[in-house]
Recover the amino acids of this structure.
């Protein structure tokens, strides 16, 4: 396939990147099988999990914590935890992908909240500002263009209020209560926006790969 | 059963996005055990959130895998469980089986049982035995397993992995001469001045090794070993060789 500037891009994609749905239809089941093997100590199966998901794990960590060094620490904690509790993955409860990325997001958010607990108001303002511009700084990798486009398009389907609620919570790590305070709206308003926004996103993006 | 938490339904989206305060999160987790509608919602919302995460993909530094590759083999893993998902295992499943016998299963287990980087050099002793029994895996992988070892008598060396959570200890002794026909090595719990029977050691396939599992550890701080008739005795016939069970109790 061709890169953005017309150069040839190898078929083997860089670590952390995989082609979108159509080119990797078996991806989901394979990942679950690898986790199952990893649970029995198979490190090379686990490497497969890492190659598949490290981009998303690191990427969402970076988006939430903003600092690359911390994002790297979070990514390391996440994969260590995934290795440790791989046996807990239950295919009936969801995809392997969402299991790992749920762990990743929670770890990133926990770290940010631990920071916030001991930081000043100007730190908060800086993070809000960073959150607003982060989208522009995303590196445009060919392999993920389809995914990004779909998510961007679907985020635009939301109302401003819904999008902002998702941004403040999922992407920045505030609780919905904190978001309500920042926006100076009732908590129930934020709750509703989050729920409706996420429903719209779910319906637009589609389900599991 | 307590009144259903109807208001919790509205928390599913926030829960899936990690946007709840700690107390609300716990409330939601409790609610999810009873509400399949919410479980389904949360599952779907999490899949959606996973797509948001993927859209943020960035190449991590190459040394990240390098570091993981080197450190993960020493990271203790939860054993693959036989119980149904959602069940909380407080004791190994075979706990309730009457008399506990140390059984070495024929099928080799591929699992790597790791006690910890500090004890890596001890791993060989356990690996062979542990690989033949899932039961021992559960103990060794339990969150509070602690290990102690020491000399037993003049020539023998004992290693004990004990768990307060499971109230049991796994004992491996090397260097005991094989017991004569009709005799065996018996273990004893030593608590204060009291000595009570703790089961027989069994010879393993390794020439020099005996091993056993003690349950109902209670607050015993030491284990003793004597040679007795192979059916065991209610009291030791001689002064037991003693080893401390754990240095960590009470910590």
């Amino acid at each position: 396939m061709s890169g953005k500037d017309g150069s040839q891009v190898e078929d083997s994609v860089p670590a952390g990147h995989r082609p979108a749905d159509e080119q990797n239809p078996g991806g989901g089941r394979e990942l679950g099988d690898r986790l199952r093997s990893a649970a029995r100590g198979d490190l090379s199966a686990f490497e497969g999990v890492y190659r598949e998901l490290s981009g998303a794990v690191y990427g969402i960590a970076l988006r939430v914590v903003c600092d690359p060094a911390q994002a790297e620490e979070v990514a390391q904690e996440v994969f260590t935890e995934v290795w440790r509790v791989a046996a807990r993955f239950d295919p009936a409860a969801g995809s392997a992908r969402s299991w790992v990325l749920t762990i990743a997001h929670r770890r990133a958010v926990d770290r940010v909240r631990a920071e916030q607990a001991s930081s000043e108001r100007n730190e908060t303002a800086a993070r809000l500002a960073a959150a607003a511009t982060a989208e522009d700084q995303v590196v445009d990798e060919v392999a993920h263009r389809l995914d990004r486009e779909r998510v961007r398009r679907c985020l635009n389907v939301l109302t401003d209020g819904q999008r902002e609620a998702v941004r403040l919570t999922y992407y920045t790590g505030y609780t919905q209560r904190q978001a309500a305070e920042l926006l100076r709206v009732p908590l129930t308003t934020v709750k509703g926006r989050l729920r409706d926004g996420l429903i719209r996103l779910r319906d637009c993006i589609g389900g599991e790969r | 059963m307590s009144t259903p938490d109807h208001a919790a339904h509205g928390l599913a989206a926030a829960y899936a996005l990690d946007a709840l305060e700690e107390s609300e999160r716990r409330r939601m987790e409790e609610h999810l055990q009873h509400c399949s509608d919410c479980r389904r919602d949360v599952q779907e919302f999490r899949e959606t959130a996973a797509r948001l995460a993927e859209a943020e993909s960035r190449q991590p530094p190459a040394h990240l895998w390098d570091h993981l590759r080197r450190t993960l083999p020493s990271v203790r893993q939860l054993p693959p469980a036989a119980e149904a998902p959602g069940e909380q295992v407080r004791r190994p499943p075979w706990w309730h089986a009457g008399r506990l016998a140390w059984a070495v299963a024929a099928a080799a287990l591929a699992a790597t049982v790791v006690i910890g980087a500090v004890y890596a050099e001890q791993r060989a002793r356990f690996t062979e035995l542990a690989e033949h029994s899932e039961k021992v895996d559960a103990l060794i992988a339990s969150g509070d397993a602690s290990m102690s070892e020491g000399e037993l008598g003049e020539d023998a060396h004992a290693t004990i992995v004990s768990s307060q959570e499971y109230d049991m200890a796994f004992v491996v002794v090397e260097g005991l001469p094989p017991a004569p026909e009709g005799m065996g090595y018996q273990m004893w719990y030593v608590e204060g001045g009291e000595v009570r029977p703790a089961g027989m050691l069994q010879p393993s396939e390794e020439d020099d090794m005996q091993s056993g599992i003690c349950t109902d550890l209670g607050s015993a701080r030491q284990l003793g070993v004597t040679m007795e008739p192979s059916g065991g005795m209610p009291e030791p016939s001689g002064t037991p060789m003693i080893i401390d069970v754990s240095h960590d109790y009470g910590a």
